[in-house]
Amino acid sequence: MKIEKMSIMDLEQIKDNLQSDFDDFWNSNILEKELQNDNSYMIVVKDENNEIVGFAGIQFILDEADITNIVTKKSARNRGIGTILLKELINVSEQKDCKRITLEVNENNSIALKLYKNIGFVEIGQRKKYYNGKETAIIMEKKIEKCF
Ligand SMILES: CC(C)(COP(=O)(O)OP(=O)(O)OC[C@H]1O[C@@H](n2cnc3c(N)ncnc32)[C@H](O)[C@@H]1OP(=O)(O)O)[C@@H](O)C(=O)NCCC(=O)NCCS
């Protein structure tokens, strides 16, 4: 497995199969805009055949970071790729001297909740009826502590 910054060629590789192979909540137009956004950083994980098996994105605002997306290819889930993606986003945030990282996750997304809690994210709030006007978003945070 290798981690790389997402390129426009990477997006070309996955854009027609986003819904079937990954998930349907982000389309290629949004991903393309994220690639062009100077405050955003997108990464991919590739397998030994150079195929993209996961991607994730984060936005930086001053000394804070907000994870916008993290998705593992359906056929490659539960093999540690989500954890690799999340750890890399934390590394990048540390390099940018961010003080904290936030994200939102559907209260019913138990696997994502597990992933985030495993890595040290804690719940700091909720947004009721955030998804489809029905489901609650859990807002999570991880503070970045430097060991000087
Ligand atoms: C959430 C998601 C990114 C996790 O990716 P992944 O590559 O499967 O994650 P990992 O393999 O690193 O597993 C992370 C944790 O979840 C657990 N897990 C993963 N799949 C699981 C499953 N099907 N059932 C139970 N636990 C599962 C793993 O065991 C691991 O916990 P552990 O270390 O305590 O064992 C992936 O499920 C996904 O793409 N979901 C759809 C998109 C999404 O919901 N993204 C989050 C938006 S907030």
Secondary structure blueprint with pairings:
Layout lengths: L1 E4 L2 H7 L3 H5 L5 H9 L3 E7 L5 E10 L2 E9 L8 H15 L4 E7 L3 H9 L3 E10 L3 E9 L5
Parallel strand pairs: 4-5
Antiparallel strand pairs: 1-2, 2-3, 3-4, 5-7, 6-7
The structure holds coenzyme A.
Coenzyme A binds next to strand 4, helix 4 and helix 5.
Write down how many β-strands occur, each being a DSSP E stretch of 2 or more residues.
7
Give the name of the CATH architecture: 3-Layer(aba) Sandwich
Helix content: 25-40%
CATH-defined superfamily: Gcn5-related N-acetyltransferase (GNAT)
Order of helices and strands: EHHHEEEHEHEE
| Number of structurally distinct domains | 1
Which structural class do you get from the secondary structure elements?
alpha+beta
Tell me the span between the first and last alpha carbons: 32 Å
Looking across the biggest beta sheet, what order are the strands in? Answer: 1-2-3-4-5-7-6
Structure ligands: coenzyme A
Let me know the average pLDDT. Answer: 94
| CATH topology title | Aminopeptidase
Structural shape? globular
How much β-strand is present in the residues?
A: 35-45%
How is the biggest beta sheet arranged?
A: 7 strands, mixed
Enumerate how many helices there are, as a single number. Answer: 5
Give a verbal description of the structure:
The protein is an alpha+beta fold. The protein has one domain: 3-Layer(aba) Sandwich (Aminopeptidase), CATH 3.40.630.30. 30% of the residues lie in helices and 38% in strands. It contains 5 helices and 7 strands; from the N terminus they run E-H-H-H-E-E-E-H-E-H-E-E. The protein has helices at 8-14, 18-22, 28-36, 81-95, 110-118, and strands spanning 2-5, 40-46, 52-61, 64-72, 100-106, 122-131, 135-143. A hairpin with a 5-residue loop joins strand 2 and strand 3. The termini are far apart. The model has no long low-confidence stretch (mean pLDDT 94). The site of coenzyme A has 18 residues, from strand 4, helix 4 and helix 5.
